[in-house]
Amino acid sequence: METTDSKGSPKKGSKLTSLGKRIILVLLVLLLFWPLTVGIYWLVYRGYTLVDPARFPELDSAVQSVLNQTTPESDEQSKGAALSAAIRNRLQEEMSSRLGWSVNDLWISPTSWLDNRANRQRGTIFATRMLVNFYPTHLAKYGSADAENPQLKEAREKRFAFTEDSWWFPSTEKEYRKGIASLKKYEADLLANRAVFNMRSDDMYDLLVYITGKQFLDQPLGLLVQTNAEVPYFELDDRIYYTQGVALVLRDFLTVLFHLYPEIAEKGGAENIRIAMRDLQQICTFDPPIVLRGSHDSIMADHRGKMARYLISVRERLNDVAQSIRR
Hints:
Elements: H1 12-51, H2 61-69, H3 76-96, H4 115-139, H5 150-159, H6 172-191, H7 201-211, H8 218-225, H9 236-260, H10 263-284, H11 303-326
């Protein structure tokens, strides 16, 4: 029963008590609402990742098959075919995945809104292009004066150089599949002794320097180290998943490279290789439910900064491996 004063008006103490109850009720609703919202988001997101994985802890079965079938004792043609297969593997996996190539999907398609997936695919084609640019001009000939292999030349100059977002006339998928087919034709020619593969110690050094250089790893690294003030919030996750796409291609290629040429580790690079591959694995499994941009001494996580730390470690360790080959 409400307490009143001599004039019949509610007492102030009663009003304060009523207001306090309302405040407590609102706080309780907020305390319950946010965890419930976060929990629902987490469940929905994890349910989506069952259809379209965003973490890649294991090597693809195709790469594992290459490792099982090709050893350090295999002939150079087999090694060359294995490395070529490793280059194209990730792109092929993205093209044949449940949701296909999403970068060129029209805005009316639900998949066009999956920007994390699309940016991972952009990173995938970037890294594929970089390796395809190096392979035919350094590893698929005996000397610099030799002609470039025609299948690799077509893949490098025409197919993989095609824009990643063309829906039609021709579609991106059509061109990339032709590029993959060109690599497979080269691999078949290698195994039939109709093509060249020639990996020397200086090629191993040049390859690692190329990967760690301005054209290759410095490109995604630049997207990660740019200051928060210069990066819109909605672009943070784009840069993280772009880097993941690059790392997935590199993990396939470097795993096969170090497996086939153990002399790289024997020359003093074993520990550096272990750490580089460990941090590549961290990037391949990096998938925060919400990407945060904590800066300076903020209590929030800086997810771009974490990814940059992993990538810098990969770059520096691979550079140390290159220097150990040179000595």
